[in-house]
Design brief:
75 residues, mainly beta, OB fold (Dihydrolipoamide Acetyltransferase, E2P), globular
């Protein structure tokens, strides 16, 4: 999966979100990220493809792929 830069990158990259759908190898997870005065759901993959990140865990957004996909790591 190729990640590319977008004007929204600076809006979500570096934000701390919360996992709402388990992020695991071979699965698309979900995270809620505070953005634009609220919280929005994004599809999520772990930066380390071997990581499993449980529901409720805090994560740091390290990459963004438009329109709604992020790579995260535990925070």
């Amino acid at each position: 999966m190729a990640f590319r830069r977008s004007p929204v990158d600076d809006t979500v990259v570096g934000k701390v979100g919360r996992v709402t759908g388990r992020v695991a190898p071979g699965e698309v997870g979900e995270v809620m990220i505070p953005i634009r005065g609220g919280s929005e759901a994004f599809n999520a993959y772990a930066l380390d493809p071997e990581d499993t990140i449980r529901v409720g865990a805090r994560v740091l957004v390290v990459e963004f792929e438009p329109p709604r996909t992020v790579r995260v790591q535990p925070y």
